[in-house]
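hiii, so i know i said id send this last week but things got crazy w the move. better late than never?? heres the sequnce for the chain we talked about at the cafe, plus the structure i predicted for it. fair warning i was half asleep when i ran it
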Amino acid sequence: MRFAVIVRFIGIIILINALFLLVSGLISLFGSETSTIPLLFTTFVTTAIGVFPVILVPRRDDISLFEGMSIVVGGWIVTGLIGALPYFMWGGEFTFVNAWFESVSGYTTTGASILNNIEVVPDGLLFWRASTHFIGGVGVILFALVILPMAAGSKMVLFNFEVSNMAKDNLRYRTKYAMQVILFVYIFLGFTETLLLWAGGMSFFDAVCHSFATISTGGFSTKNASVAFYDSFYIESVIVVFMFLSGVHFGLLFETFRLKKDNIFNSPVVKYYFFSVLIAFLFMAAKLVFSSNFSWATALRVSAFQSVSIGTSTGFATTDTNLWPVFNQFILIFLSLQCACAGSTTSGIKCDRMVVMFKGIRQQIKYLQHPNAVSVIKIKNTVVSQDIVSRIGIFVFVFLIILVVSTFLLTLFNIDLLTSFSACLATLSNVGPGFGMVGSVNNYSALPDAVKIILSINMLLGRLEIFGFISLFFIRSWK
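okay and structure toks below
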């Protein structure tokens, strides 16, 4: 393993952070805010750290798979520390552990916060907080669609090792073109949403921050009440549309923009994603009407928003879901487990794996009925090998084991079971809000520091698809 190559890539990541830190610092400076020195000092530190490996280490495009994973894991940990520095220097509610938690939550696009009063935080620091979502979101996509293909020495592939080519049959681009496609879609969606939110009555600053949080499926808001602060059907509708789009494979969105035949409208995974969210929100709305005396208009409005918000792992809130019927909470837990599509900024098990697992169950039932039958699993025109099906099964099993173990660890701190389970699920799936103490209108501030560390590890595990993070701890892989 060539450490110099890894350090050079991490240096580039650090410099990207420095650019956003500089913009945040300038916002703070022009506003004469108390966060100016923390932001500008961190800008100087990150630039100094990042520039040397970029200049001194020669560029290499031939990286190994393990080097690619090391770049991403190392990049997330380093940026997590960098992102925490301006929070910690500014003070307020940001102890070191709180600053680390908020930073990791931002970069992993989880959106879980420790802030009790977001609105006292200076605009410069709020912009930096939203920027960690933007950086983390595009970082996930570039890693999945650029770094891994470089490491594997292959052409463009779809997001995860075991779900490649399932959501889109022939979505293969050269690395340079892939970066252009990803950035175009990411920036186009963010720019369009910003304009629409601004037109709907948000301040330009709030519109930018909320679009950063939406496109990255992050969920950080500039308001204590999240999106509920605006009490606007128009704003909620805009955010719902862009949350949903951000849960779709970005390459598929690009092909759809180009009016190509292979687009989101004939993708079986996207169809499953759409109908699973649609059915969930209709069931929740009906339950609110018949059990909680909601009007149909209100029930449909809040259910649609929360189902898309949780189903895409964004985590914005317009209501207190702690007060919802248990049936609705169960549906939201299912959506937190599943989340959206591979090739997007979402996390969780993902719809791609869900489709394969359901087809695998049907295949096994056929085998029981007809033991000698020859059956294959197909996603559109692509045959899914048994090896891929096995990997998906292993991933889901390990995901659930981590969920159970981390929940057990939280109960050791005398945290109630609902809070423990939902907090672990919300961080492992990078959703953000859970139930109980960490419900949609609450936050993570009341949890002990040790619990926040456990949950921040969950965030990293979920963001890095578990095995990418775990593989670095096997020394044999270093050779």
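btw The two ends are 6 Å apart (CA to CA). thought thatd interest u
miss u guys!!
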